[in-house]
Amino acid sequence: MRRTITTALALLCSAAFALDVAPAQAASFKLLYSFKGGADGAGPQAGLTAVGHRLYGVTLEGGSYGQGTLFSLDTKTGVEKVLHAFGSGSDGGVPSAGMTGIGNILYGTASAGGIAGQGTIFSLNTKTGAVKTLYSFQGGTNDGSYPQSRMVEIGGLLYGTTMQGGSANCFLFGCGTIFSFNPATGAEKVLYFFQSSDGANPVAGLVQENHKLYGTTDAGGAGDCGTVFSFDRSTGKETVIHEFDRQGDGTTPGSALYRIGHTLYGTTIAGGSGDPGDGTVYAINGNTGVERVLYEFSGGDGAIPEDSPIAAKGLLYATASIGGATNNGTILTVDPSTGAGNVVHTFEGSDGSFPWADLIQIGTHLYGTTIYGGATGNGVIFSIRP
User: Fold this and answer.
1) What is the pTM (predicted TM-score) of this model?
2) Looking at residue 274, what is its pLDDT?
3) Which of 106, 161, 193, 383 could in theory staple to 166 by disulfide, Cβ–Cβ 3.0 to 4.6 A?
4) 255: exposed, middle or buried (Cβ count in 10 Å: 0-12, 13-18, 19+)
């Protein structure tokens, strides 16, 4: 669902910019697990969460009811274990976001299902394996619907976004919301309704700096090409700090932001040379709103980057969901000071295809997933050592 919507939105906007990619260099890539597409799940779109030597994640499809799974992978043994199959009742389905840990409990969202079919919030106890449905979104003007982002924990509360719901300015489905959830009480509260002019359809997670949250919207803003916004938790005020347009700064910022100091880094799934362009990596000052394009994808080095960049060894690591020599996607580094890019891995299909999720770092390795590819084409879990 998310892949189709964000790609369609990107086709509405175009940009013009160009940078050269450095020659590809080898990196230590390892295929950890190939999903079979049945009970073990299929289509791992979300980023992973680490607890000790285990990785936890979700799949969009597969499982006993075809609505996705919640799984763990032991990085020492390579054993994958299904902890929950979505779709058995009102527990939700089609989970597309990574989970957030508070102690030994992981919290996540399912983008569909639940009592009203608008998505759910759930928890996993990593010690007991118990999975609980904590909240069902109701949709409409009083609530959000279709949560697709990883939540962030601040002071015991979880903050997230929903792609739709709230204001009816966006084709009657709502432009999306910012919400909080109290895991101790089960209370959900809508903090802000997007209005389209200030952004619409947030699918990425939020990042904190002091009392403000920063995020992106896939659409909305003056050119309907997406925005970067801040939200003041103390006042409830949302501020657009950058509106993407057709002038070369990228379009449809589908990724979460990655913060280093006051600088926020992200990707756009389109924009750059050509029409609609292959996407960009950008930096933006959270205080001033000044945005600059660091790197522009050109197809041969990848295209449609959907994940949030992550810093490792002084470089930003990002994935492109398609493109590269085999059109299965790439992993690429960008130097934040010079904008120089370098492809460090090109997916071949057998080792994964369509990397969509944010990378996470554990020790000396980065871990990620691809939606497709692997032994049966149902997606993989991989690691790469910078």
Assistant:
1) 0.92
2) 61
3) 193
4) buried
